[in-house]
Please model this.
Amino acid sequence: MTTLDARNGRRLTARGEKTRARIVAAAADLINVQGVGATTLDDVILASGVSKSQLYHHFAGKDALVRAVVDHVGERIIQRERDALGHVSTIQGLRRWRDALVQNNALRHGAYGCALGSLASEVSDQDDAARRAASQLFIEWQELLAGVLHRLQDGGALPPEASIDQLATGLMGALQGGYMLAQTARDVTPMATSIDMALAHIESLHKHEVGQRQRPAVEQVQ
Amino acid sequence: MRTYFTEVLARERACLAEVTDRTMLADWRRGVVKELMTPQSPYVLALRQTGSVRDRADFLDGWRGLISGTVDRLLQSGATGGTLCSSAQSPNSDVDAQKIAVLILAALHGGSTLSRLARDPRPLNDALDLALAWADQDNSLAKTGTSSSTSKIV
Model:
């Protein structure tokens, strides 16, 4: 059985596909821990247990491998976020999503940050194809957040005028910045604070609107 | 690396010290966004996840402290309106200022990463809209729903 390699259009045997996946998984782990810059192809060969010729059979060089890692990490994160956010329609649900992210990051004292965010900030000045791929993945992630905010809006928990896409991007900025602060502090507290404050603002939009609606009613009674 | 940290902190100390109302906060924001959207700006170089973690942690702590001092001053003086300012008179205003400062710093850090990735200043502006909404008297994020930010607190 053969499958088509999306990158170079070559057909891969099941064994070839397995080897390729092993290389990408090993490279993703190394890059997550030590960054793109500090990861060499020799490190990847050692960590994946493949030969140099096998690696070069699948990847023309480091840039091609890093692009495959961006796809691999992005796919994993988008799947995780789709599972976590796909049916959330309340602020409480968003808080549970926040709890899970903070908890997962706390297991490692926040040292590695967001796998996709760290990768993205490293490739954004180095390889335009990888930058565009990472940018597209963030758009997908933000769309999942926007989906939640739309459901909140439909349920009346956000005012109809609230700009959902802007809020989703703002929340993503707070999340990614939170990961980065936690990574530097080796402590997840700033990440938790950052997301909490962003969610508090989103929640306050509802309260603010309710307050606005109630005010004239009070005046009428008086 | 250290020189970027020192330079940014010195400039931020000077800029944030001048902020006493919403207009000046908006000026500060404009200046920082401009720096963060300029490749090779000391601001961009200082926020890279490279170099000594301890030096970067000290730099971020210093910047957060400066932002927190400014936010606290604005909350205490009542120079801003908005949702969180109701607590300005409470003993929690210092706590609020510190938490707001964490969100602002996260927005600068995460927003500029997303903006560099997208080659577009909008993600950074959206992140700052959210982080600075407390200073926005009319809470216009809720009211307008228009695209990016420049007409809001900036």
Chain B is about 65% helix and 0% strand. Helices of chain B lie at 2-17, 22-36, 42-46, 53-77, 93-118, 122-131, 140-143.
